[in-house]
Amino acid sequence: xxxxSELPTPPDGLPDKIVSDLQQLTDEELRxxxxxxxxxxxxxxxxxxPVEPGTGEDIIRVNEHEGYTEVVKTVxxxxxxxxxxxxxxxxxxxxxxxxxxxxxxxxKFMGKVTEE
Length: 116
Ligand SMILES: [Zn+2]
Description:
single chain, binds zinc ion, four-stranded antiparallel beta sheet, 2 domains, 116 residues, alpha+beta
């Protein structure tokens, strides 16, 4: 028998519907959910950046903030086109806890900025 009191407290911000759905799942289904969530995160990462980060990245500025690091950098695209380097772009870099433990660095694309 499993009673509600044995269930872990869900993280703040997780929608109630998701919480109740997850609580219905078997262990095997939960593992698949984690894998799919990671795939979604990765696809978001790719969609967030207009250019593929390559070896031509040039960090212009780094500022530490509460909960994230602000990074401004220019990026050379894979084609090394006429407009290269692109940017500068502003990113918020956050450490996200991984479901399997440890943390993952998440680069959140904030947009183009004007910097000298
Ligand atoms: Zn380019």
